[in-house]
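User: Structure please.
Assistant: Input sequence and predicted structure:
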Amino acid sequence: MALRPTRKHLPEIDITPLIDILFILIIFFVLTTSFGQSQLQVQLPEGKADALRSEEAIYVTLQIDGSLLWDKIPVSEEELAIKIMEAEKSNTLVLLAADRNVPYGKVATLLSRLHEKGLGQISLALQEE
């Protein structure tokens, strides 16, 4: 009596759970990613403006209470002056985001200080109409 050769079954790898975990991780990272513009706690004035290269800009935020932020880090006026001196003066784009309820005099004073320190380009952030 001849014996039949047995077929060896190779184990199959089911990658469905791996794909499920991958999609869950992608959804988690998309939902937890913070976007810089949405973190500003100021109400910007409305208007139309040209698009700027925001990835190269340094953000200076003037909040309604008069406090200053340098790239979302709270700073005093003295610290702001030091950080301005450390910045590359010629190619640096400074985007000033001032709350719409801040008195114009404070905005004008800050603009003149930034200009006096020799920063190349200073632009005002606006909320799209």
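The helical segments are 16-32, 77-86, 104-116.
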